[in-house]
Design a protein that fits this description.
Layout: E1 5-7, H1 39-52, E2 54-56, E3 59-61, H2 86-103, E4 125-127
Antiparallel strand pairs: 1-3, 2-3, 2-4
Length: 148
């Protein structure tokens, strides 16, 4: 599963960079989009990711600005699609889920750890609220210049 797709309202772990600088990197943005900064600035930046994210099936799907595609985009966990507009992405999820559910139901194996499940359980598509983050991030995975 892509790093921009997080279970619940969690964030990937992140730490101070030791490769290209001594600041923190956004886990969803390339260094040329969001320059490494102090922890407080990255936390404020991550709030904007939550405000633009799509809440779907117990997952938060953040807008990705890594070098996967030249434009900001969302990653679909059903397929390899990367729509750029939020409204198009929400429609894509609904259509793909309806099409996929008509063929075969998504029933995860109870013995499979939740970190390996790529198909979340059924529920409604929701857009993220524009409220503040309730749990500020405490760490962040390294995103150094030239890495994706």
């Amino acid at each position: 599963m892509h790093i921009s797709i997080q279970e619940g309202r969690s964030l990937p772990d992140f730490q101070r960079c030791t490769t290209c600088c001594e600041d923190f990197h956004c886990p969803f943005c390339a260094s040329n989009v969001f320059h490494p900064a102090k922890l407080s600035k990255v936390q404020t930046h991550l709030e904007s990711h939550f405000n633009r994210a799509v809440l779907y099936e117990g997952y938060t799907i953040h807008r990705c600005a890594l070098n996967c595609k030249p434009r900001f985009h969302f990653h679909c966990f059903y397929c390899q699609s990367m729509p750029t507009r939020k409204a198009d992405f929400i429609k894509h999820l609904a259509l793909f889920k309806a099409k996929h559910s008509a063929i075969t139901p998504i029933i995860p194996d109870p013995s499979t750890p939740s970190s390996q499940i790529h198909q979340p359980p059924s529920s409604q598509i929701q857009q993220s609220p524009s409220s503040q983050i309730h749990q500020p991030p405490s760490s962040q995975g390294e995103r150094c210049k030239g890495s994706v």
